[in-house]
Specification:
Belongs to the DNA repair enzymes AP/ExoA family. Its cofactor is Mg(2+); Mn(2+). The protein has 7 helices and 12 strands. Strands 3-4-2-1-12-11 form a 6-stranded mixed sheet. Strands 5-6-7-8-10-9 form a 6-stranded mixed sheet. A hairpin with a 7-residue loop joins strand 3 and strand 4.
Length: 268
């Protein structure tokens, strides 16, 4: 089974790119982020015509997450993280899909740091860690997939010395990411590519994609029930080079039906 995450940076404006990639890659399940569309503007008909059932959590102009599936309709289990009823941002959606529990997320950017946006990021991360612990305790075959807005290590960022004051590379944020992994989650890309330079995001400015001056901020985390089923984990980086594309590239994993290999989380 092929499961992907893709920050589309505007689902309607980038719809031709999304549909082209879906046809080319044929993922079974996809988590989308940054829809930047209210509920009624999600392009459900076009997604359905491409062969996918969908659930989505939209918001006008900002945020927004969705789960697409061509292996059975997603059955929504959660919309928004628990822990803050005043939080109206559309950043988390969860569904049961074909025997898996999929949590699609868009973690806050947090800049400028310090400030209220950074405080919100840390608080949101704590809520994610608390909910993720419940998923681990349940024993469910679960995946957390999305734009985490975290570069976990220096391997995950071009010229890390330039990012020391950025919220995506802040020590508190990186520590929170590894506290999440320490619950038992496997970072799929790093499990299979422990030493490679891998990026999932390239800014539109300064010719970043051509220079391969990127960041790895889009992650797929596997619960212990799935870690042994991990067969492949890759980035469709060529999609970042398409016309009118997102500044992120799709990231995907392939899971086997049974235990095939032992995936190991690399230390930070």
């Amino acid at each position: 089974m092929k499961i992907a995450t893709y920050n589309v940076n505007g689902v309607n404006g980038r719809l031709p790119v999304l549909l082209r990639w879906l046809e080319e890659s044929r993922p079974d399940i996809v988590c989308l982020q940054e829809l930047k569309a209210p509920e009624e503007r999600f392009p459900a008909a076009a997604i359905a015509a491409a062969g996918y059932d969908a659930i989505w959590h939209g918001q006008k102009s900002w945020n927004g997450v969705a789960i697409l599936s061509r292996v059975g309709a997603p059955v929504e289990t959660r919309r928004g993280l628990p822990g803050d009823p005043q939080d109206t941002h559309s950043r988390y959606i969860e569904a049961a899909v074909n025997g898996l529990l999929i949590g699609g997320l868009y973690l806050p950017n947090g800049n400028p740091r310090p400030g209220p946006k950074f405080d919100y990021k840390l608080a949101w991360f704590e809520r994610l860690i608390a909910h993720a612990a419940e998923l681990i305790d349940s024993g469910a075959p679960a995946i957390l997939a999305g734009d985490f807005n975290v570069m976990p290590t220096e391997r995950d960022v071009y010229k890390p010395e330039r990012w020391l004051d950025d919220a995506l590379f802040a020590p508190e944020v990186r520590a929170a990411y590894f506290r999440l992994l320490d619950q038992g989650w496997t970072d799929a890309l790093r499990a299979l590519h422990p030493d490679e330079t891998i990026y999932t995001f390239w800014d539109y400015f300064r010719n970043a994609f051509v220079r391969d001056a990127g960041l790895r901020i889009d992650h797929l985390l596997l619960s212990p029930a799935l870690a042994d089923r991990l067969l492949a984990a890759e980035v469709d980086s060529h999609v970042r080079g398409w016309e009118k594309t997102s500044d992120h590239a799709p990231v995907w994993i392939e899971l086997g039906e049974g235990k095939r290999r032992r995936a190991k989380r690399q230390p930070g």
